[in-house]
Amino acid sequence: MHDQDRTTWWQGDREITPEDLAYIRAFTARFPGLARSELTATLCEHLDWLTPAGRPKIDACTKLLTRLEAAGQLRRPALRQEKSHPGPRVRAALATSPLPDPLPDPLPTLAGPLCALGGVRLRLAREARDEQRCNDALARHHPLGYKQPFGYWARYLIESAEHWLGCVLLSGAAKALSARERWIGWSDRQRLANLPWVLNNSRFLLFPGVMVPNLASHVLGQLARQVGDDWQARWGYRPLLLETFVDPRQYRGSCYRGAGWELLGRTSGAGLVRPGKHYHTHPKLLFAKPLQADFRARLCSSSLRGQP
């Protein structure tokens, strides 16, 4: 037995048991001819390591196997040589691909009632250039800038009949929040299993010149109504809860209150503490918005994977 078999291994929110390690080693030794991609996909299926939509967690499994190999716990098939440069078709596609549309110049300056905009919609960014437009807008105009989202994510463009007004970014929920956990009432095991059904509204931007009363709450109301269908189509499952953080030094969260989000409390500001690392920020207001009436019962179930 390896000495580290007695040590608990974790990859993300998954505990890797000694039985898991033994199976990974036995399977790898039994099928040495498998390519690394085949090995990883097969282990995901055999260990039931799947996304909420039932797809193999390839990235997480690959990281675990790399860690095990670096620690001398595993020997994988040799890495096959990859081409160091794109082929002619790829180069041609890169050369002719359109650049993202630039940000509006000048930015829209709008004031007046919401009805004067002629209708406002949230458009899911499906094309790479629309995603890049959102990234650029957040980097330039959001107080927190842009940060690459982790886990599952979605970007929305906020548009009126004639103007691009801003954007919304959704990403993975915070790993652990005392106020949220008390409010939901789930156990640590339930949280680890069902956290993907909670989405974080990590960025919400209306361009600085857009001064339209009730617009922000109107957009958040649309988001709550349509994100379920959009997420189902994009990622294969339907979320149950939205969360967000608001810095009380700058904002009161009025638009979230107006859209029916509930204030759960404040974060501690300590973040997730890890050995050898220190992390501190200012406490934030924590808001949440249920997307389904039975959200609490479902989040407190043993596992949501495979449920509609």
Description of the molecule:
By secondary structure, the protein is α+β, with helices and mostly antiparallel strands. It has 10 helices and 11 strands. The chain has helices at 18-30, 36-46, 58-70, 88-96, 128-141, 178-184, 188-194, 215-235, 254-258, 295-299, and strands spanning 9-11, 14-16, 110-111, 120-124, 154-160, 164-172, 198-206, 210-211, 241-246, 262-266, 285-290. The strands form 3 sheets. A 7-stranded mixed beta sheet has the order 4-5-6-7-9-11-10, with helices on both faces. A hairpin with a 2-residue loop joins strand 1 (9-11) and strand 2 (14-16). Helix 2 crosses helix 3. The chain is elongated and about 70 Å long. The two termini are 42 Å apart. The relative contact order is 0.11. Residues 81-97 have low confidence and may be disordered.
Structure in a nutshell:
The protein is α+β, with helices and mostly antiparallel strands.
